[in-house]
Request: fold
Amino acid sequence: MTCQVIHMTIRKFQLIDTDKVIALWQEAFSDAPLKQNPAEDIDCKWRTQRDLFWVYEEQGQIVGTIMAGYDGHRGWIYSVAVDDSCRGTGIGKRLVSHAVESLKGVGCRTVHLQVRERTAKVVSFYEKLGFSVLPRISMYKSLV
Reply:
């Protein structure tokens, strides 16, 4: 598919989009840890803050996604994905801008995101959008 950005449509994710989103994520996040399950991630997001999950649709095809979260203190951006054939067309920038503005609209004052070390090349993309690298150690605890 050759991407031609003609009719920009960012809309809320709908359950009918699930298979297309999973296919896009499998392409965009091919280096994701095996423990990640896109169907479970989508189901969890659908049950909590579904209004903060969007797709970018171009001529009937889903070519981008973004999820956001807000805990009342800080906002987070997750799962920014753009179809390989559409990278460099401004879709990622539009998705991030849309999520940031939506978070700002609910009172969010800071927006955070994480980039896996293996995909550090995207750091410059986010820096161009005004994000800064924080000197932090990211930790987690698996509950499954």
